[in-house]
């Protein structure tokens, strides 16, 4: 092979195919792939992993849905396939040992990977990566596979978002597949096995070292009947996943022994939000499975695997109103005894009365609404489909269905967003009067229009491969709340001094996030009187204070208030836990002072700041 050729400069199709064939000859001299091992790396590396968090079951533990689809397609072609989910294996092992000193993060996943390769020598390993924060873990897993002298192909959302830089950084993979891989990956294997010409390759970049990439860009995303493939559930212990981690955002509303699963009804999203990477991976528009195929999968999960709750993986579940209603009605007709949630979010414009009524009847217990901003200028600049009126209309519909917990995605920190614009978001959210608001700071993702624009304007620098999110179990905000990292020492002074016409700094955004979280989520609890909503909030706050953010001060305080509202008394244990938290945490003492809260409120039952938080006296709201 002519190693001096710069692959990116090869434009002649025949030359490109010759080089691809030469690479295949070199890597697989026998040109025969019979066994494939599909691997999910740990979600984070040892530096971020906390044993106590894992033991609480806080870390997410999603079944490898994409790998199960790939496995099913490959098996139809006569390829032997196994799936090794190292993230699940680590979380499961964390429940098998009692003390952190007995838990060896890297040793555990490395032993499992080496043992699997030794017991089942694969001709190829496929490694997926969903999150940018998983990059360091992906790198280590790929290096370990390379030590075993097994060729590797990588893929997934993270790889697709920054493909060439990631290949250069990883070095060891021989190829990467971008986007959905159920068609592209089997064709790559067929080409290696000389069953198809390399001219048929698509969504594949062959890697011959740093800067030496040979791309085949033909779009091979699955469509039509290909979408109706049922995942290879027999390769995955689906019953174990929710036992050792969380699936979706609404597990607090189900009994602890509930068996969760995920399902995918359609691919893609009709929206074109500039901060979102869905279009990078799924392409434009929405492709839909047949309703019968989707419900057949749900029926298998309930009847054969004991699943009683499903989280939809869809990014635009309600895209086609008629189809959504047909899907929900068929679920109801088959009497699946199944509940479900839309953690990934639905578009507000699709929340019509007819759609939400069918959703509720079919077992919907919770949805997230993608709003992001309540400011018209920001919504327009990020191409968010919807206006404040759209969100208010959706909220009006959802409030009529009390059995559905309705949550809203909000985001702050957009380019040019002033404090006044953020207050527009707060005010629209208050007017929506829904159940919870999931506030986050903007995290520009590589290869999205917003990211590219911000880099071009010098607002941010090109980021590392392993971006760490602010929220979630591995997020920076969680560390602050638990006292593992420092927050603003005087929250009230810092927050109150932000001018309305200024663009907040990163540190100020953290304080604004905290204010929004209290004002939109917790303070409104003072005025909640509906029994079903009180029960939902109680379930949510218990998990928040016990699992998500142990001894969260607001969670404990408002658990006590809801006990008083429901039962006429407050459990002394809750008061004691809250007082201990305030005594031991300067962070929480400062925040409670800012909002005019105190542990003694739960004993005197004098909630003197229920109408207006003390800090608001300094703001024009």
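Sequence proposed for the structure above (621 residues):
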């Amino acid at each position: 092979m002519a190693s001096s050729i710069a692959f990116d400069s090869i434009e002649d199709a025949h030359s490109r195919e010759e080089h691809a064939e030469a690479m295949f000859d070199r890597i697989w001299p026998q040109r025969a792939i019979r066994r494939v091992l599909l691997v999910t790396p740990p979600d984070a590396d040892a530096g971020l992993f906390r044993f106590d968090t894992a033991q609480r079951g806080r870390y997410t533990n999603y079944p490898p849905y994409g790998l199960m689809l790939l496995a099913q397609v490959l098996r139809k072609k006569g390829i032997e396939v196994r799936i090794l989910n190292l993230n699940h294996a680590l979380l499961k092992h964390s429940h098998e040992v009692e003390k952190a000193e007995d838990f060896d993060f890297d040793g555990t996943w490395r032993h499992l990977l080496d043992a699997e390769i030794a017991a089942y020598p694969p001709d190829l390993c496929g490694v997926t990566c969903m999150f940018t924060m998983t990059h360091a873990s992906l790198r280590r897993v790929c290096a370990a596979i390379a030590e075993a002298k097994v060729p590797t192909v990588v893929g997934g959302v993270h790889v697709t978002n920054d493909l060439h830089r990631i290949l250069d950084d990883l070095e060891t993979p021989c190829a990467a597949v971008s986007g959905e891989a159920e068609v592209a990956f089997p064709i790559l294997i067929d080409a290696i096995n000389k069953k198809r010409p390399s001219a048929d390759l698509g969504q594949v970049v062959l890697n011959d070292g740093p800067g030496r990439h040979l791309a085949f860009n033909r779009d091979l995303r699955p469509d039509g009947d290909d979408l109706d493939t049922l995942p290879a559930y027999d390769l995955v212990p689906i019953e174990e996943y929710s036992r050792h981690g969380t699936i979706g955002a609404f597990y607090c509303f189900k009994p602890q022994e509930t068996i969760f699963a995920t399902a995918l009804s359609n691919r893609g999203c009709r929206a074109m939000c500039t901060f979102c990477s869905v279009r990078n991976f799924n392409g434009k528009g929405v492709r839909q499975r047949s309703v019968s195929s989707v419900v057949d999968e749900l029926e298998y999960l309930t009847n054969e695997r004991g699943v009683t709750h499903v989280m939809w993986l869809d990014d635009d579940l309600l895209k086609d109103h008629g189809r959504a209603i047909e899907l929900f009605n068929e679920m109801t007709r088959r009497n699946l005894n199944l509940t479900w949630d839309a953690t990934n979010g639905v578009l507000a414009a699709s929340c019509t009365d007819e759609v939400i009524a069918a959703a509720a009847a079919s077992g919907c217990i919770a949805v997230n609404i993608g709003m992001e901003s309540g400011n018209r200028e920001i919504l327009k600049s990020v191409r968010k489909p919807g206006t404040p009126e759209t969100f208010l209309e959706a909220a009006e519909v959802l409030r009529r269905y009390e059995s559905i917990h309705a949550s809203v995605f909000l985001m702050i920190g957009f380019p040019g967003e002033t404090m006044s614009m953020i207050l527009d978001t707060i005010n629209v959210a208050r007017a929506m009067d829904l159940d919870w608001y999931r506030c986050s700071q903007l995290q520009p993702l590589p290869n999205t229009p917003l990211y590219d624009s911000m880099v071009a304007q010098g607002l941010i620098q090109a980021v590392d491969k392993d971006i760490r999110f602010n929220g979630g179990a591995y997020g920076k905000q969680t560390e602050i709340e638990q006292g593992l990292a420092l927050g603003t020492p005087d929250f009230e002074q810092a927050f109150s001094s932000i001018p309305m016409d200024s663009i907040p700094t990163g540190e100020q955004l953290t304080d604004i996030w905290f204010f929004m979280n209290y004002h939109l989520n917790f303070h409104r609890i003072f005025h909640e009187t509906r029994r079903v909503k009180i029960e939902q909030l109680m379930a949510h706050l218990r998990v928040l204070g016990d699992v998500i953010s142990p001894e969260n001060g607001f969670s404990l305080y408002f658990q006590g208030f809801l006990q008083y509202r429901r039962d006429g008394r407050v459990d002394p244990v809750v008061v004691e836990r809250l007082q201990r938290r305030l005594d031991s945490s300067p962070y929480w003492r400062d925040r409670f002072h800012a909002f005019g809260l105190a542990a003694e409120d739960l004993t005197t039952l004098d909630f003197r700041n229920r109408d207006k938080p003390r800090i608001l006296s300094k703001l024009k709201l």
